[in-house]
User: Which sequence fits this backbone?
């Protein structure tokens, strides 16, 4: 069968011809099929069809179906500029707009996911390649050693471009859908990954790719792909965003279809140029095929082209099933460097509305994704059965790509450098049982430490898949003190790499001695990070703290985590933070003991798994965290009773064509009388970088609170303003607006000025009780400068007269975003 490699449609009347010996020509029928005589089995054939590049294949064994994929041929043409008169487009009394409105309303009529049970099998193939590859293996200083790369030179079935395949991923799964989204499941039968991602963390690469190239649903109001929200052509706001045209009637297979074309009214906006093909005369307005691409001027970083192609089929009850989904992304990070080509092809089969016997164990089971490959060996025969589309010759050879690459010294050491930059740790073996790092904490400066030198590391699953050790030692040249930390964790699950990988289920213990920076707690990085050493001011408001902690942690498949433990704190004063009472008495330390529990729920959360931290891939899910800590006076020698509660909620809200907003709401209360280090000090950010959940213009220990409520939001406009300014729109700048507000209070029982049993606030800290006026700061920024830089100017709106505070300032961040 001869088919189009992109659409999967048969190519009628294609021609095949034997390559050697006596020439023999055969012609395909109207369905693209050719019956090859048994006498020609084993012969090599050339396939040709107008508008497509020639392909070759060898006739295989008797009674087997061979698919030959034909790629459209592309040609470089000279640019032609067409300048039409200004179009008088109106959505009123426009038959195309009426057609779209009817199409959107009809979408609910034939959706199989509205059935009580719905399942199907799915095969995904993701290819990453160097696009427009011009390498010459006969010249250059690496030519002899990189000759092996010739085996991985491929041709794009979309564009006809020359490719160098560098990564291939395959996944075979069964998807279960139902009326209750909580019951949706993915059962992964097999997963395969080969190529350069063996250099990186394969699991993290897979998580990022699946988030960046998500499955497209044209019937949803917005299309989530490339970590952006594009307005769907069938969105309720589509008539205000797109121009629609009824342009043609064409045959798709045997069905005569109406061709609906659409383009965004603003080429820089987050939309598509494309066509929908709807079966003519169908009362349910069945969409047979969709082809879309992004406009060239769209404000998406690094993107050269994005193509989407989908085909649908109808079952006996009239419901639609997506049978083919193809997404192609062409990207270039820096002008003049090689382009990258990413293509994800998905095919679907075995649609069913009945509960399948082989899936009965998963209906109602806690969790949304289950992987079966841990206990079942994956063989080449497995993939031959599961693949719904064949691999190209270059793709079929990807299994030995990395082993050949590592034989070239230059590529071998390039791999080492990339791995070091990606992980931040130095591995000590293969496999590594102990990793040194993180590298960005080896050297930092400022504060009471002066120059701080730190060395640390952690064991991996190669040392023991259940027992993990982690620690560091640090020395400050100014205070001349050694600091240290040691941690052990026992995992009830056998880990593949690190203790912190999801899901955690185990017990842990930690003992440390280090500085405790009051009111300066960073959320997603270490306080030893070198890049945080540059500060707008240096305040030595820290104590020395011995911390002993132990506990139990359980992370469930539904993204609910439970942590319970016990904590002991031994706080020592410093010259900047003495422990003194109003009557002049001074103590050399105090002790605090407590029990604690943390509940966290983040349904659908995806993250990049680091050795010590988890970085969210996106902020889409609701993240709700509840913490409570209680310890009676006398517990482990406690000087006071600890009783405190905190709750936080995080969420990203997408605003379709108008960008998105990240919102964080938090509240907390101390129910008992405590010494001032145990109060709820707001997080002050003294660095010049933009840090989440901290205040850019607040000083540490500026506001003393034992109860608070906080609201932070950051709005990203995705070029909603800059895209409309001629000249500026070429820079692809984006808008950023931030607001951070805090309401707090200090009860009499925790106010040292009113309670003589408490330690007094240090003289170097403002430590004021907040008035009824909230603390507020706002920022206006330009994001996406050179695609990686964000610059904000921040103003402090209230409490501007507090002594020594900053009223405004510039803050920056470097980040990679699409």
Assistant:
């Amino acid at each position: 069968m001869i088919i189009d490699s992109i659409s999967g449609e048969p190519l009628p009347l294609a021609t095949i011809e034997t390559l050697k010996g006596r020439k023999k020509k055969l012609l395909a029928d109207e369905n693209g099929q050719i019956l090859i005589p048994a006498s020609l089995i084993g012969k090599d054939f050339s396939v040709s069809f107008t508008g497509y590049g020639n392909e070759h294949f060898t006739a295989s064994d008797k009674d087997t179906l061979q698919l030959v994929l034909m790629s459209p041929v592309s040609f470089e043409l000279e640019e032609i500029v067409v300048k039409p008169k200004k179009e008088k487009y109106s959505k009123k009394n426009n038959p195309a707009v009426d057609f779209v409105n009817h199409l959107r309303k009809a979408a609910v009529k034939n959706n199989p996911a509205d059935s009580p049970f719905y399942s199907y099998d799915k095969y995904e193939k993701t290819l990453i390649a160097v696009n427009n590859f011009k390498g010459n293996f006969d010249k250059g200083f690496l030519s002899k050693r990189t000759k092996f790369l010739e085996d991985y030179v491929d041709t794009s079935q979309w564009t006809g471009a020359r490719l160098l395949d560098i990564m291939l991923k395959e996944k075979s799964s069964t998807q279960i859908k139902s009326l209750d989204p909580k019951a949706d499941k993915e059962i992964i039968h097999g997963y395969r990954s080969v190529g350069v991602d063996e250099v990186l963390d394969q699991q993290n690469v897979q998580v990022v790719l699946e988030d960046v190239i998500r499955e497209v649903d044209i019937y949803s109001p917005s299309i989530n792909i490339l970590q952006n929200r594009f307005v769907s052509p069938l969105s309720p706001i589509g008539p205000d965003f797109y121009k629609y045209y009824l342009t043609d009637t064409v045959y798709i297979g045997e069905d005569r279809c109406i061709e609906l074309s659409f383009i965004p009214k603003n080429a820089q906006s987050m939309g598509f140029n494309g066509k929908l093909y709807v079966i003519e005369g169908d009362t349910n307005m069945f969409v047979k095929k969709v082809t879309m691409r992004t406009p060239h001027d769209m404000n998406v970083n690094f993107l050269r082209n994005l193509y989407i192609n989908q085909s649908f089929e109808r079952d006996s009850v009239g419901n639609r099933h997506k049978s083919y989904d193809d997404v192609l992304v062409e990207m270039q990070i820096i002008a003049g460097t090689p382009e990258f080509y990413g293509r994800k092809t998905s095919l679907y089969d075995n649609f069913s509305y009945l509960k399948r016997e082989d899936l009965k164990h998963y209906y109602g089971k806690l969790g949304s994704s289950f992987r079966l490959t841990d206990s079942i060996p994956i063989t080449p025969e497995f993939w031959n059965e599961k693949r719904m589309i064949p691999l190209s010759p270059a793709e079929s050879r990807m299994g030995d790509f990395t082993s050949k690459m590592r034989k070239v010294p230059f590529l071998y050491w390039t791999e080492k450098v990339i791995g070091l930059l990606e992980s931040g740790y130095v591995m000590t073996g293969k496999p590594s049982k102990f990793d040194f790092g993180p590298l960005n904490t080896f050297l930092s400066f400022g504060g009471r430490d002066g120059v701080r030198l730190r060395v640390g590391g952690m064991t991996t699953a190669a040392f023991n898949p259940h027992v993990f050790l982690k620690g560091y030692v640090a020395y400050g040249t100014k205070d001349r003190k050694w600091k240290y930390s040691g941690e052990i964790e026992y995992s009830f699950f056998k880990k593949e790499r690190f203790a912190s990988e999801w899901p955690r289920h185990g017990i842990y213990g930690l003992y440390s001695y280090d500085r405790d920076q009051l009111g300066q707690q960073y959320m997603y990085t270490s306080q030893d990070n070198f890049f945080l050493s540059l500060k707008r001011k240096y305040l030595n408001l820290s104590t020395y703290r011995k911390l002993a902690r132990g506990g139990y942690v359980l992370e469930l498949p539904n993204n609910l985590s439970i942590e319970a433990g016990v904590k002991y704190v031994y706080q020592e004063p410093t010259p900047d933070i003495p422990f003194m009472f109003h009557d002049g008495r001074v103590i050399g330390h105090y002790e605090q003991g407590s029990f604690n529990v943390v509940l966290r729920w983040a349904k659908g959360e995806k993250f990049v798994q680091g050795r010590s931290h988890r970085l969210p891939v996106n902020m889409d899910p609701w993240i709700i965290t509840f913490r409570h800590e209680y310890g009676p006076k006398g517990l482990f020698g406690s000087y006071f009773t600890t009783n405190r509660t905190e709750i936080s909620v995080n969420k990203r809200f997408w605003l379709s064509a108008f960008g998105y907003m990240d919102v964080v709401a938090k509240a907390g209360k101390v129910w008992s009388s405590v010494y001032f280090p145990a109060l709820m000090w707001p997080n002050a950010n003294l660095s010049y970088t933009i840090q989440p959940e901290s205040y850019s213009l607040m000083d540490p220990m500026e506001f003393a609170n034992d109860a608070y409520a906080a609201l932070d939001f950051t709005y990203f406009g995705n070029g909603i303003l800059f895209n409309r300014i001629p000249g500026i729109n070429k820079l692809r700048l984006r808008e950023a607006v931030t607001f951070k507000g805090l309401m707090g209070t200090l009860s009499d029982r925790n106010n040292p000025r009113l309670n003589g049993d408490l330690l007094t606030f240090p003289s170097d800290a403002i430590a004021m009780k907040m008035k009824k006026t909230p603390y507020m700061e706002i920022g206006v920024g330009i994001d996406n400068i050179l695609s990686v830089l964000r610059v904000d100017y921040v103003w402090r709106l209230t409490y501007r007269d507090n002594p020594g505070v900053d009223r405004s300032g510039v803050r920056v961040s470097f980040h990679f975003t699409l």
About this structure: The chain has seven helices and 40 strands.
